[in-house]
Every structure is written in C-alpha cells, then in structure tokens.
Design brief:
4-stranded mixed beta sheet, 4 strands
Amino acid sequence: MRITVVQTSACDLCEEAAAVLAELAKDHPISVDVVDAQSDVGRELVARNRPPRQPLVLVDGAYFSAGRLPRRKLERALTARHATAERAG
C-alpha cells in the first residue's frame, strides 16, 4: 500500500501523521511518500483534492483523509488489504 502525505512546514498534525505512519509501518507493508504542499506535485494534489486542512493523506493515489489522520480507519484498511492478499494467495 502506497501512502502519500502532503504536508506543510510547522504542522503539528503533519508531525503526528508521520509518527503514526512510522509506527504502522512496523507491522504493515506500507510505503510512505512525503510531499511538500508548496512543491509542484504538492500544489497539484491539493488543487485536485481540496483538503480543508493539512496533512492531505492519499492511499494508493485516492483521497483518504485531511487533518488529523484517522488511525483506526487506516488500520482497518491495512488489515482488510492484508486479508485480501492472503486469500488471493
């Protein structure tokens, strides 16, 4: 699962999201890309998704959340993805 975090500097929720993702990465096969909201890519993602707050979090390129990262929702998505992969074999 590829997770993209679009963040700004001096953003407490961005730092919190980074900590949560680092912890989840210990138990789940995720790849995290951090993008500065002021970069060309960051501006394009913000324009496309129009998040009300930072960080903007995308999972496999699709909008997942903005603002405080919903940890339990993400854990459920990771667990579901893992279960699907195991059934597929």
